[in-house]
From TrEMBL:
InterPro entries: Lysozyme_Inhibitor_LprI (IPR052755)
UniProt-listed PANTHER family: LIPOPROTEIN LPRI (PTHR37549)
Source organism: Dyella dinghuensis
A GO-annotated cellular component: extracellular region
The protein's name in its UniProt record: DUF1311 domain-containing protein
Length: 496
């Protein structure tokens, strides 16, 4: 049976991928949706994918980038049911086709990145919401996801776009580095060249507000009170971090606060042997959670630089300081591959099948992660099995309070719940039908990139946990980078 790939051409493109023998996961054969099997990303079917894609001229009038009459899963139906998403999918396909023409020897990297992006898109588009207002907000999020992808593809392999010397140097370092990109933003500056190989970063030390002046190397500190006054917490006993770049005679104070761990900067210079406050640039005025920023020295000039870090991307922005004013924002979007690590299993101490169950959970995660099409988890069920599965779903933990990963009392580093968007599915082992759940780890609105898989036994009346498995996900190799427009220009002036 063939698989329908979303976003691959103006007409439907069916590809018959090669598979791996011994796959423990049954094929998803939902008769209503005609869902087909996903068996990995063999070179052969990727080549067919590209060949078929190039048959579609980007000048042809497209709605979705695929034939909606053959929509075969929830992600495709979400796109086809919304005119705006359908139009954006067609635009994305046209941009991707043009990028492939420019890619040259980077075609394989672009195809890997497109596969990863489509999986991320599918995950967003497969979410189900009870409330229309929440569904509409998610749809807007998918629209923004498309708009940024289109902009990235339009600027990919266009060297004339490299407007910032600093970003050009960062992109060169990343493209020639053999090491995977560092996902931890606290030390990720080194991966971008912040160890001095590209740019110089300030030294940082934590003090109280009352004592911080003693560590600023200038006698005339009349302007320090204004710098301190712009901090969220300016009492003498409040903690503050001092960042200094003596070679540029530039410094800053910052504090971190709130649930989102937002960073508030107050910058200054002592170019004229006296502390003078400097306006905080836009890219340092919006750093929360996984976004972080700092100032840096590059080729005798002072820049603000920020990095919004995700598993498969780093969104890097810079602004150049000229006199006392910050220049326009320049932005580099970097894309990375990812890899799944060895699974961590939590089993009942009496279980004799822990290794086999772990392997089964790992296989589900590796298969699902590459497409994130919910229907791939389906197995053909007999009428009696469907009845049992429906009963399992009714007895399943309440999703409104987030489902807990089975850990059997073990200490777990990180989240112990399944994040929103996790899904139930039927799983089999040794002929037994179990209730399975797969998704990311999470707590409240927070989530991580690791895959969580759990299985529950059904005795006809109640569910009991069998195993919980965490498959860590790590950032992989550098794939691509492109100078792109600031987000405000892509999404609109009112978007942060």
């Amino acid at each position: 049976m063939a698989i329908q790939l979303v976003g691959v051409g103006c007409a439907a493109l069916n590809v018959s991928p090669g598979g791996h023998s011994g796959d423990p996961i049954a094929a998803a054969r939902d008769a209503k949706l005609k869902t087909s099997r996903l068996r990995g990303s063999s070179t052969m079917w990727i080549r067919r994918f590209v060949a078929g894609m190039l048959l579609c001229s980007p000048l042809m009038a497209c709605a979705a980038g695929f034939d909606c009459k053959q929509a075969a899963n929830s992600a495709e139906h979400t796109i086809c049911d919304d005119p705006a998403l359908s139009s954006l999918d067609g635009q994305m396909m046209a941009a991707y086709t043009q990028a492939l023409h420019r890619a040259g020897s980077n075609q394989d990297r672009l195809m890997r990145d497109q596969r990863n992006w489509l999986a991320e898109r599918n995950e967003m588009a497969s979410l189900y919401f009870d409330h229309e207002s929440v569904r509409q907000e998610n749809t807007k999020g998918i629209e923004r996801f498309y708009q940024q992808r289109i902009d990235f593809l339009n600027h990919l392999f266009v060297t004339a776009d490299q407007t910032s010397p600093l970003l050009k140097a960062v992109a060169l370092k990343l493209s020639t580095s053999a090491a995977p990109g560092d996902y931890d933003y606290k030390i990720g500056w080194k991966a971008l060249g912040g160890d001095g190989s590209v740019f110089d970063m300030p030294e940082e030390h934590a003090y109280t507000v009352g004592e911080v002046g003693k560590y600023i190397p200038v006698e005339n500190q009349a302007g320090l009170s204004e710098v301190i006054g712009s901090l969220p917490s300016a009492s003498n006993d409040d903690r503050v971090t001092l960042a200094l770049l003596p070679s540029a005679k530039f410094g800053g104070l910052y504090q971190v606060g709130g649930t989102l761990e937002c960073v508030s900067w107050s910058l200054f210079t002592w170019q004229r042997q006296a502390i003078a406050p400097i306006k905080t640039p836009e890219i340092l005025d919006q750093n929360c959670w996984t976004a972080t920023g700092v100032f840096a020295g590059f080729q005798g000039q002072l820049y603000a630089i920020s990095d919004s870090v995700k598993l498969t991307s780093s969104d890097i922005s810079v602004q150049l300081l000229t006199g006392s004013d910050w220049g326009a924002q320049s932005r580099l979007l970097v894309r990375y591959d990812y890899r799944l690590s060895k699974p961590i299993a939590y089993c009942d101490s009496s279980s004799k099948d822990c290794d086999a169950l772990t392997a089964l959970a790992d296989a589900y995660a590796r298969r699902y992660s590459r497409s994130r099409v919910v229907e791939i988890l389906n197995s053909p069920l007999s009428a009696e099995e469907q009845k049992s599965f429906d009963a399992m779903l009714k007895a399943a933990p309440d999703e409104r309070t987030q489902v807990e990963l089975p850990t059997f009392g073990a200490t777990v580093v990180g989240y112990t719940n399944f994040a929103d968007g996790s899904v139930w599915f039927p799983a089999r082992m040794h002929g037994e039908l179990m209730l399975g759940r797969i998704g990311h780890g999470g707590l409240g609105w927070r989530s991580n990139d690791n895959w969580y898989v759990g299985f529950w036994h059904w005795d006809g009346k109640s569910l009991s946990p069998v195993i919980g498995v965490i498959i860590p996900v790590q950032r992989g190799d550098f794939l691509l980078s492109a100078d792109v427009r600031p987000i405000r220009e892509i999404l609109g002036t009112n978007v942060q």
